[in-house]
Amino acid sequence: METESALRSAPVRQLSVFLLNKAGTLFGVLKLLQDSGVHVLGLTVEDSVDVAVVRLITSDPEAAETLFIEKGIPFGSCDMLVIELPEGVAALNKSLHGLLTGETNIHFLYPLLVRPHGKPTLAMHVEDIEVAARVLQASGFRVLQQTDLSR
Questions:
Q1: How distant, in Å, are the alpha carbons of 74, 83, 115, 120, 142 from that of 77?
Q2: 30 contacts 18 by C-beta, under 8 angstroms
Q3: Is 9 left (phi over 0), alpha (psi -120 to 50) or beta?
Q4: How far is residue 138 from each of residues 71, 95, 146, measured CA to CA in Å?
Q5: For residues 100 and 94, is the Cβ–Cβ distance under 8 A?
Q6: What is the CA radius of gyration of the chain?
Q7: How far is 37 from 88, CA to CA, in rounded Å?
Q8: In sequence order, which residues have a C-beta less than 8 Å from that of residue 4 and are 6 or more positions away?
Q9: Which residue from 12, 49, 51, 109 has the least number of CB within 10 angstroms?
Q10: 78, 113, 133 — which closes off a domain?
């Protein structure tokens, strides 16, 4: 059984769902999650002519994974680094500079739909999540965990 400390330090997990690029497929996935009580907290879509990769951060990644398995929806998952931008959007450059000094590449990033502490949040998939988290915390950024986002 996981300790309370381990639960608090669980990283934010993103699910990448692979969908045919047809009208209504994104709506269907989001409705499935909503009907199951799973809230979408962050979302980005990478679209092509025939398929789309939908990256989701949810309030309950385990429940979302179970739904996707039950419904035969192909997906993958990865840990994400999520930070608060304490000075709002102006802090974006400061965070990017911190990652540059830590020599950690960003694979992709996107803002979240929620503001758990009233501040803008940014989700990042980075080359080395531990180095990036240390560098950003040293620069004054708060790194959020899954429990900070879950309802």
A1: 11, 19, 22, 23, 23
A2: no
A3: alpha
A4: 43, 11, 21
A5: no
A6: 16
A7: 30
A8: none
A9: 49
A10: 78
Q: pTM score, two decimals?
A: 0.86
Name the phi and psi angles at 8, rounded to 5. Answer: -65, -30
Which among 136, 125, 151 has a CA at the least distance from the CA of 13? 125
List the beta bridge partners of residue 83. Answer: 122, 143
CATH number at residue 9: 3.30.2130.10
Q: Domain range holding 104? A: 79-149
Domain count, the chain: 2
Judgement on whether residues 66 and 118 belong to the same structural domain of the protein: no
Q: Which amino acid is at 10?
A: A
d(CA 86, CA 76) in angstroms, rounded, equals 31
The Cα 54–Cα 27 span in angstroms is 11
Given 25, 43, 78, which residue is the final one in a domain? 78
In the prediction, which pLDDT does 9 show? Answer: 66
